[in-house]
Amino acid sequence: MLAIVLLLFMTVSDVVGRFLLNKPIPGTFELSKLLFALSVFFSLPVSQYNGENLGITLIYDKFPIRLRGILDVLSSVTSITMFTIAFVQTLKYASRMHNAHTITSVLRMPMYPWIYLASVGIVILVVTLIRDLSIAIKELKGEESNES
User: Fold this and answer.
1) Average pLDDT over residues 77-81
2) Can you give the residue ranges of every domain in the chain?
3) Spatial CB neighbours of 120, under 8 Å, sequence gap ≥ 6
């Protein structure tokens, strides 16, 4: 949310500067891309935690509870695996950007810290998915869960 608020103020300031004062803020486009990317990577775990990610339930809701539990476990394991791979690859990418001294074109800021921040969002998502997996396993075993 902080990234979106910063993005809002920065964009409004840039537009005002550009059209009223004929002085745009240098690097606004670069920072907008970086802040938007961070907002995406940090909103995924929040959405997952709150159960707000998209799901197609038209057929799923008609399945027996046991089958739904099995599907929830399989879905969680698949998601954990995929996002763990994404995390590792993001770390490798950040390391390559660090070693190559890659910087933004206007502000000349290093890229790697932003990529490392994005990887933090992925880790938080994986932790949230592990939490969902434990809830799904408890529900599959028939234990009461007041988490979801």
Assistant:
1) 97
2) 44-141
3) 41, 42
